[in-house]
Amino acid sequence: MTLNLKYFFFISVGLVGCYFFNQGYEKLIFPNNELLNNKFSFQNIEDKKENLDVELNEILEKNIEKKSKLKLNKIEIIVKEGNTFFSILNNFNLTDKLIFEIINEIEKFLDLKKLKTNDKIYFYQNENNEIKKIEFNLDIENKLILNIDNEIYIKKKKLDKKFYEISKEFIIFESLYSDGIKNKLPQDILIKLIKMFSFDLDFQRDIRKNTKVSVSYEYNEIIETNKIEYKDINYAQITIGSNTLEYFKFLTDAGYYDYFNREGKNVKKSILKTPLDGARLSSNFGMRKHPISGYNKMHKGVDFAAPKGTPIYAGGNGVIEFVGTNGGYGKYIRIRHNNEYKTAYAHLSKFNKGITKGARVNQGDVIGFVGSTGISTGPHLHYEILFQNKHINPLKLKLPSGKTLEGKELKRFKKSYKEILANHLNLLYE
Ligand SMILES: [Zn+2]
Question: For the chain, which has fewer Cβ within 10 Å, the N-terminal or C-terminal residue?
Fold first, then answer.
């Protein structure tokens, strides 16, 4: 916006300059218009002058408009403990009627009760100390703008973003994580990278000194707030000795983003054995005395003890088949991965947003959070894998190998991976 204003200013100055130059020039070459015999050219100049007058007027009008906008004084309010939006509005000179209307409009987009300490609200005052505009940051991508004139106009606006792609390469001396941090790899990307490699590598055993890592990823910078939003890894490579693993991001015909090696083989195994981080196995699959009923009963899944709120990942790509309360399972999700495999997650404290029946999820997406709903003795995840609708022991699951691209899809992939690789090398060595 400031940039636009700047351009506008320069163009205005330029045009006004042109106008005066033209007028002076006219006087210079036609000191006395009456003396001119050539009616045609006289007419022509008058036309031009009129055109310029119109343009100049338009510019002046726009300038006045911009000026009145520019004159708004921006006030940043940081929400403090105990503040409500009402109490904040009360600090400004507003009528009760206007306060009511403002709150009413904003509540259509935003639950003002959820206003948090340190949230920022921007008020814009004109020279008479009247509030003309209020802005909220809704989330990382959107803001809410409320304009107050004779009426209130409210709109949600997507913040402008700048897209970046970046490549990095480094040697592991200590560990993937610590050397990644040393090489300024953002933590978000590093976690994705570790997850990606963890299907193929045992970090303790496989990673040796002088392992080389090469990665290319995307991020957005939200211009107004300077916030960074990390996106996907496009390419990753890890070289241990003479062994190289590569991962190329690719949108499959089925509509999933997934990672494949150069041969078009999916590098992800189809189902995670442990769909959460930092969990401890607390009860295995098989016959056991039920901790609540006391009866001997088949335990059809495995239990992972983890603190309440620990994110639970989708065990594989698939479609949400069930989400809701399911008897003793409490809050429960079931994902259908393909014709043969399903996974189920029980006792959740809550579901992640966007997890609805029929929603498509990718392996590793957060679907919900650990809790203790239903018949449960404490926060844990009860995890089941169903193969042809029969429960199997997740820990003994023989992982079926991932999909291999074929035919047209493979052809499309090969074109895509070459572009990704060329881009990556360009970014590394430019
Ligand atoms: Zn269980």
Answer: C
